[in-house]
Amino acid sequence: MSSKIICVWMSRATRREPTGHGGGPTPPANESECSMRLRSRAAAAAVAFSTVLIASPALTAAPANAVGPCGSGYNRVGVYAIPASGPRLATLEVYWNATERKNCALTYNSYNPGVSTYTRVSISRYLADWTGYNRGFFSYYAGPAYVYAPSGCINVRGGITGPNGYVERVLQQVHCG
Q: How many domains are contained in the chain?
């Protein structure tokens, strides 16, 4: 099946261009010339669009000293789907700050972001009680929750109420340092 370019030329009156400036552009003589003009205009549009993307401050990389969800100095060390298998309802993220020697965790609502949903995050040192936690009805995430963990491992837990009730993911003895 072959494709054919259909060239439509709009007159100056249809384009509502002002008159009296030398007659305006001439219509293409044939389909080849029309195709060439279309490619030229598409290339110009692509260059203009890419210039906007490159110049856009929202699309530039974050500076090295950017503050993340846990505060400055925290680096993400783990991302876990909740539940571990099946459709993702939430995302559990774990961060580490080497200077403060603390871990931080958050649970993001992937199921129904923007809608108040029971969401939970907990964090502790391995073989200790859940010392850091945040739970309640949140629209986007629970947390951050922190634990001082200068050495050894941590436990982390995230949960959310989904269409079939509450689900959670518990990770024990992880991110050992």
A: 2
